[in-house]
């Protein structure tokens, strides 16, 4: 059975093909570093959806290191890039809420289709595996299937579900869920939210209202607001993060479907361009394929040999 690092390495295969392997091909046979090589390297970074701003920063750092003679030959570029990417991504990894008094409340936001409900189910599974009591709140009342899906996940993971009927007030669901979490002495409460309403401003107002209701019942809650992004959408994921971040104070990102994309560089773009840490990554369909993000592990898997 594959360990998580090997799964991550396999999951990043498409990104490695458009990124690390192309860098390898580029530097092979090059002794010295010239302008043409640097231009080609820049193009590779952009094609992996590292983002314009982050690519600019990485290229600037490479040129500065060349001037200081820290990098003298082409084959030193790869380890230097790995260190740089590790450095960008380090900081903000999740401790799973261990430092917070129960109930640790996680509000989960994101557009429809990114794997939000599945992510909540897998988060619930992760905490249940740690022996913690988990409640799920079905506050996406706009989409009937969302309540049903969450009910299925609650059954699979052994979490308890708080739900109202379709079309009911999402903030009322959140309120009841917080009361239930306190009364039942739950360790973790995970609140699902709508990914789409009639208008974008309508959706954002709803999210703010849910957040206010939770904070009124437990000051400083929700302690975590996770934005779920689909890694296959590349730079579009960064734009989504900007939109949600303006409204709900996103504390961290969950990147799903990393195993299905060549755009894994978006992990770097999200952290560098938005200053929002990647907290969790999804690299498969299995219950255990959502894991806390580890910067050194990710950089190591991205630059690992085949």
From TrEMBL:
Pfam families: SRP54, SRP54_N. It catalyses: GTP + H2O = GDP + phosphate + H(+). CDD domains: FtsY. InterPro entries: AAA+_ATPase, P-loop_NTPase, Signal_recog_particl_SRP54_hlx, SR_rcpt_FtsY, SRP/SRP_N, SRP54_GTPase_dom, SRP54_N_sf. GO terms for cellular component: cytoplasm; plasma membrane. Residues 8-89 form the Signal recognition particle SRP54 helical bundle domain. Residues 102-255 form the AAA+ ATPase domain. GO terms for molecular function: GTP binding; GTPase activity; signal recognition particle binding. Its EC number is 3.6.5.4. NCBIfam families: ftsY. Involved in targeting and insertion of nascent membrane proteins into the cytoplasmic membrane. Acts as a receptor for the complex formed by the signal recognition particle (SRP) and the ribosome-nascent chain (RNC). Part of the signal recognition particle protein translocation system, which is composed of SRP and FtsY. This is Signal recognition particle receptor FtsY. It comes from Lucifera butyrica.
């Amino acid at each position: 059975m594959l360990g998580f690092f090997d799964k991550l390495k396999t999951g990043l295969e498409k990104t490695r093909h458009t990124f690390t392997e192309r860098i390898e091909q580029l530097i092979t046979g090059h002794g010295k570093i010239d302008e043409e090589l640097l231009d080609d390297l820049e193009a590779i970074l952009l094609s992996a959806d590292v983002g314009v701003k982050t690519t600019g920063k990485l290229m600037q750092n490479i040129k500065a290191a060349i001037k200081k003679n820290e990098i003298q030959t082409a084959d030193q570029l790869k380890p230097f890039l790995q260190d740089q990417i590790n450095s960008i991504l380090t900081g903000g990894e999740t401790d799973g809420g261990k430092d917070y008094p129960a109930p640790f409340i996680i509000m989960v936001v994101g557009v429809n289709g990114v794997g939000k409900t599945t992510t909540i189910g897998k988060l619930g599974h992760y905490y249940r595996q740690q022996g913690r009591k988990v409640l799920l709140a079905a506050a996406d009342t706009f989409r009937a299937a969302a309540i049903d899906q969450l009910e299925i996940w609650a059954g699979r993971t052994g979490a308890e579900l708080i739900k109202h009927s379709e079309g009911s007030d999402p903030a009322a669901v959140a309120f009841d869920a917080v009361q239930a979490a306190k009364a039942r002495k739950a360790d973790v409460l995970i609140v699902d939210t709508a990914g789409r309403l009639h208008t974008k401003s309508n959706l954002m107002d709803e999210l703010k209202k849910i957040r206010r209701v939770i904070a009124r019942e437990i000051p400083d809650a929700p302690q975590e607001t996770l934005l779920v992004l689909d890694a296959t959408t590349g730079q579009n994921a960064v734009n989504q993060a900007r939109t949600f971040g303006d409204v709900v104070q996103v504390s961290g990102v969950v990147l799903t479907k990393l195993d299905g994309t060549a755009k894994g560089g978006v992990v770097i773009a999200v952290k560098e361009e938005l200053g929002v840490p990647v907290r969790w990554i999804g690299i498969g369909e299995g219950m255990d394929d959502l894991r806390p993000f580890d910067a050194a592990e990710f950089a190591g898997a991205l630059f690992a040999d085949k």
